[in-house]
Amino acid sequence: MIQIHQASPDMAPQIAPLIMEAMNTECCQYFAGPEHTLDDFREMMISLIRRDDSQYSYRNALVAVTAQEEIIGVCITYDGGQLHSLRKAFIQAAKDAFGRDFSNMDDETESGELYIDSLCVRQEYRGQGIATLLLKAAIDRAKSLEIPLVGLLVDKGNPHAEHLYKRVGFQYANDSAWGGHQMRHLTFRVSPKG
Question: DSSP secondary-structure letter at 68?
């Protein structure tokens, strides 16, 4: 039986590789730069997950956990209106770890949207509805926070993921670009509590 619940700081070493898979290896290596490894990037991510004030914080992480307490999926969500304040931790960590400045990064979300930053299920557990459970938990989080939209970006080259999001009820909002990739911005309108 798979359960979805809030992450805790001690889960960071298990969550970091899932976030990195969602980001993809090429993107992680870009942030680390040519003088650093993916292991270096993973260590930085672990520290960001353990923090309270990071976009990748355990506070923003919903995890899918097996009966044996194994983390097999993660969904990172946060209020898009807090992107700039949450991103400060990543920018500073990248400067400290890699000597690289990403303070001019494009915004991928905005106020009024609970943004799904990263979603990943471990390879051997895919196709079992776990990503759908995580997406529905994110929608429930938006409802409890009274945020009217849940949004995400999906790479135009990933029709399988786009199909999953649309099956859950996400709809095309507009074209976007992030990290040099052509993306589609999909949103889910949250019905008010009641």
Answer: T
Banded model confidence at residue 193, pLDDT cuts 50, 70, 90 = low
Rg (CA), the chain: 16
Residue 179 has pLDDT above 80, yes or no: no
Mean pLDDT of the chain: 94
Tokens of 122: 């471990």
HSE value, Cβ hemisphere, 13 Å, CA-based, for 100: 17
Residues with Cβ < 8 Å from 137, sequence gap 6 or more?
4, 62, 75
Q: Which pair of tokens denotes residue 177?
A: 């670009």
Separation of alpha carbons 47 and 179, rounded Å: 22
Q: Nearest Cα to 173, choosing from 137, 145, 191, 148?
A: 148
DSSP conformation class of 87: H
Residue type at 132? T
Regarding beta strands 149-155 and 113-121, do their DSSP bridges make them parallel or antiparallel, or are they unpaired?
A: parallel
Mean pLDDT of 145-171: 94
For residue 25 the two structure tokens come to: 């290896």
Paired sense of beta strands 149-155 and 171-178, if any: unpaired
The amino acid that residue 110 corresponds to is: E
> pLDDT category, 120, cuts 50, 70, 90?
very high
Indicate the pTM of the whole model.
Answer: 0.94
User: CA-to-CA distance for 161 and 109, rounded, in angstroms?
Assistant: 19
